[in-house]
């Protein structure tokens, strides 16, 4: 049992260390993390065993990752649309200036 606990803590430490040096978290990663923690808490409370917490964490992580991925996709789509709007606005300004120049 002590070996199992030590091994689990070692894996958790390696995971946390690697997550810290990877850079800022994406929306998908944040969603997966929040889902995993929430799922583990709810699973542990409802089943009152570590298996329930483990299962809840896995399911919550997957669900949170899926939701985070959808939100991240929406963010990218909004950014792309804003870039297109900015490009269109620059073209409009250019054409207005050209029209003014031709009128004078």
Automatic annotation (TrEMBL):
Residues 1-22 form the signal peptide. It comes from the Bacteria. Transmembrane segments: none annotated. Residues 83-104 are annotated as: Disordered. Keywords: Signal. Residues 31-71 form the Glycine zipper 2TM domain. InterPro entries: Gly_zipper_2TM_dom (IPR008816). This is Glycine zipper 2TM domain-containing protein. It comes from Candidatus Giovannonibacteria bacterium RIFCSPLOWO2_01_FULL_45_34.
């Amino acid at each position: 049992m002590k070996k199992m606990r030590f091994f689990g803590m070692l894996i958790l430490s390696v995971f946390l260390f690697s997550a810290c040096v990877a850079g800022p978290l994406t929306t998908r990663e944040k969603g997966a993390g929040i889902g995993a923690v929430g799922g583990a808490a709810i699973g542990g409370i409802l089943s009152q065993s570590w298996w329930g917490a483990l299962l809840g964490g896995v399911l919550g992580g997957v669900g949170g990752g899926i939701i985070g991925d959808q939100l991240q996709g929406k963010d990218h789509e909004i950014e792309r649309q804003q870039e297109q709007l900015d490009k269109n606005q620059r073209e409009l300004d250019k054409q207005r200036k050209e029209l003014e120049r031709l009128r004078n």
